[in-house]
Amino acid sequence: xxxxxxxxxxxxxxxxxxxxxxxxxxxxxxxxxxxxxxxxxxxxxxxxxxxxxxxxxxxxxxxxxxxxxxxxxxxxxxxxxxxxxxxxxxxxxxxxxxxxxxxxxxxxxxxxxxxxxxxxxxxxxxxxxxxxxxxxxxxxxxxxxxxxxxxxxxxxxxxxxxxxxxxxx
Length: 169
Hints:
Elements lengths: L2 H9 L4 E5 L11 H13 L3 E5 L20 H6 E5 L2 H4 L8 E3 L4 H13 L7 H44 L1
Parallel strand pairs: 1-2, 2-3
Antiparallel strand pairs: 3-4
């Protein structure tokens, strides 16, 4: 994370940051130290973070995703967390997500007002039922098996792919 660049933007007046955690497309999980350093800037410049944590369930073994809002009460008050079962359970077409908004009444009201203005206030019933079933019945064992297979595939193709691309150029 380029903290110097972030600070430059905050100094220039930026009040909102979008964080992808884990980072997409490479799956990088931010460390607690990195998140705490980010918090210093967010608090110092009185900013808000939209934390896209849709990939949180898919952190590869050996990595631990830490929700940004969980690192401190100060960050919890400044973070809107976006999550969804769509990536974890491959149900993106059912259009359902979860948005965790802090008890900060002003933030919640402003966010809900924007949703109403763009007509995004209704829940897709099929998405709701599918998400409930996925979390209840999909289970941790299926997810862990998927992560294990993806991790093995990733570690076996990546070195060979990179080597073949470097040699062919």
